[in-house]
Amino acid sequence: MADISAKDVMALRNRTGLAMMECKKALVEAEGDAERAEDLLRKKLKGKMDAKTDRAAGEGRIAIALSDDHSAAAIVELRAETDFTAKNDGFIETAQKLADAALASGATGEVSADDAMSKLVDDIRISTGENISIGRATRVVGTPGSTVFGAYIHHDGKTGVLLKGEGDVNADTLKQVGMHVTAASPRPLGVSPDDIPADQVEKERKFRIEQAMDSGKPKEIAEKIVEGGMNKFFSDVALLHQDYVIDPSKKVKDILGGGTVTEFYRWGVGETADTAAATA
Question: Is 12 helix (H, G, I), strand (E, B) or coil?
Fold first, then answer.
């Protein structure tokens, strides 16, 4: 018998919009083959599930939960089809319950929905008649006594920022940084220059060298000119070096006192993992 994980069941559920139990039965029958399981479900239900699964879940809400002792935090994206449903009190409450459940899961990193989380989704799906699904869920671990978590949810609920800090920094300050991360343009790609993805750094450096050489400068001179440009690039996209949007006379690192940010998650409803802001 194939080993069917909760993550596999949730993935099939998100593709079909059907109940977790139905998806699990299909995966067991298909010996873990997700495509075959989906075919089995379609044949069994004679295509009845298409009416819901063809409807895109492009609306939703971000929810964040923080432990009282700052030992962990969780961020969850719950998706819906309409903005009307995403603004519903029941939907908002469910999103928060899912974040609380992810926090209590004990996982590190990506959280797979358990039966209780799946039931929460099924219940709100039945009550709204929409294709509700968990877009993603992550739990971040901290160290009590040194780690401080902070969170900011934008007023429309569609953007949320979870930050992990260390040292002499408080949750209120981190919330302010979360507001900055939400509003900053360009969007931060990492905490510090060392955290910017290497491929993006190389792409930017290559572009600036070619630009300098096209102006007639020798490569050696162009490379020296480029270093200044790269410093500007890092100050634009490294969180700690960005101009603080609330007070541009300061850098983000200047408002953190004796502490720092070591990791952040900026999630927007409907984004894929590839377009979500990098963590560091």
Answer: helix
